[in-house]
Design a protein that fits this description.
Elements (H helix, E strand, L loop, with lengths): L21 H10 L6 H11 L6 H11 L14 H29 L18 H12 L7 H17 L2
Amino acid sequence: MTDIHHPNHNSKKTKYDIEVLWMNHAQEMLKRSEYVDGELLAKAIRCNGNQPIPSDVLEYLCRFLEGKEALTKGRKPVPRYHVNQMLMIMGGIYDKNLRWLKARRKKYGHLEGWSSIRKSNFWQGPPNEIAARMVARKFSYGAESWRSVQNRISSRRKALHCCE
């Protein structure tokens, strides 16, 4: 991606050049209350040419130069859409595992499992617990225990059913 408004850029335009409006990009980031770093601010000012700097960007630039704007420390919060997506996937895998375990119990009359895992804690309990353990093991990130998997899936289903 090239800045066609950059002073060092040759004026010959190709069909592959993309015009980036850095000032608009900075304004959109400020509307979303995101941190705008110095590099992006410099690009926006350089590429803006003789046009006046919008007041919201100018105010942010002053705070930035005074050292009042800083990047927040620590882990950024997980976007809500990502959490919903993970819960949807976890719920689907949980349902698939639960169906498989119930069919296995119906076919064989028990859920003892294979000889290598028969005595492990993983394979103990009713089918819904075993299915939740399978999901918790697969998604160890964000799922502390099989009980938390069940709670998350249950709360998501309640939220979906209340809106119908």
